[in-house]
Structure formats: structure tokens, C-alpha cells
Specification:
There is one protein chain. Helix content is about 35%, strand content about 25%. It contains three helices and five strands, in the order ααββαβββ.
Length: about 160
Amino acid sequence: MVADPLLLKAGSWLAIAGGVLLVLTVLAFVLGWGVRFRLVGVSSFTLLLAAGCGAFAISYSPRSSIEGALVVPVVFDNGSNLVVAAAGADFPLEAAGPSAEQVASNLRGGGRNSSDGLVHVRLRQLQAQSNGSSKPTVLAEATKDLRSGEVSLVQPATGRTKN
């Protein structure tokens, strides 16, 4: 659990401001000020912002970065055990393994249910054929264990064309 110190500081300052506004709101109701209903909205919104900043600061976890990996878009995710990322036509082959590992390490396990507890991440590239069509080829495959969070690189079979 990584907490962002700037958001925690902002959340605490917003909580202090919300507390001051809440005291002013109670005072406005006791003294019958005309702005008392506006103060209800302002103080409740300020306290809501404080709670949101604090919750986001506690739940925030930065994306992992692996040396030699390039950013690739995820083009398919069945939500359980398969994620496919796409490599461009000019993608260097030496970056395939680290890129697949990076996508796998950045996956969140919440809501995924796999029979073997693994999520397979495949990095594929579309290679042009002579008849004008294209053929998907798996460049690298990584698996992530949902229980332990361990990521391992798997060597795909040569010429594999499955999604």
C-alpha cells in the first residue's frame, strides 16, 4: 500500500477546512444567518473532498516499469485469464519479453477468476501476408499468478496464431 504524501496533506487540510466550515454552519443556524443553507453545501462538499483525497491517497499504487519494456496497448481482455496486447509493425523484438512482463505486472487481480489462478498476457503483432491480409503472431507471453502476484515469462511456440 503506497500513500501519496501530497494527497494525504491536501486531504488533511481539506478536513481542517471542512471542520471550520462545519462549526461556522452550526453557528449560522444558531444565530439565524442568511447564508446558513449555503454553508451546509460548502462544508459538506469540503468534507467529501477531504474523504476522497484521503481514500485516493491510501489506495493509489503507481504502475510498475520494467527496464527495456515499451508501452503497448491492451486490445483484448476477457476479464478472467487472457489479456492480449498489440505491438506495432516497427516493434523491436528485444523489447517483447519485458513489455509482456510489464503489462502482466500492471494487471490488477480484483474480479478476475481463473480456474488455474493464472492470467496469460500475450503480446502479438499483425504481420502482413502476400494476399493483403494479416496474420497475428505471438511475440511474447507472460503469466501472472493471481494468488502470489508473481510474473513469469513464457516462451510462445513459433508461428502461433491463436488470439
